[in-house]
Amino acid sequence: MMLRDELKTILQGEVLTDEETLQTFSHDTSLFEARPEVVVAPKDREDIKALVRYVSEHKKESPKLSLTARSGGSDMSGGPLSESIVVDCASHLNHFSVDAVGISVTTEPGVFFRDFEKETRDSDMLFTPYPASKDLAAFGGMVMNNCAGEKTLRYGQMRKFVEELKMILADGEEYSFRALSPQELEEKRKLQTFEGEVYRKTHELLESHFDEIQAARPKVSKNASGYALWDVWDRKRFDFGQLFTGSQGTLGILTEAKLRLQKEKSHEALISVFFRSWDALPEVVNALLPFDPESLEVFDSETLKLGIRFMPEIAKKAGSSFIPFALRFLPEVVMGAKLFGMPKLILLYQIAEDSEEEVSRKVEVARKALSPFPVLFRVMHEKREMDKYWVMRRESFNLLRQHVRGKRTIPFIDDFCILPKDTPRFLPELLKILKEYQIKVNIAGHAGNGNFHIVPLMDMKKESERAKIQPVAEKVFRLVVQYGGSITAEHNDGLIRSPYLKMMYGEKIYGLFEEVKRIFDPLGIFNPGKKTGASVEYAMEHLRKG
Question: Considering the entire predicted model, what is its pTM?
Answer without folding.
Answer: 0.94
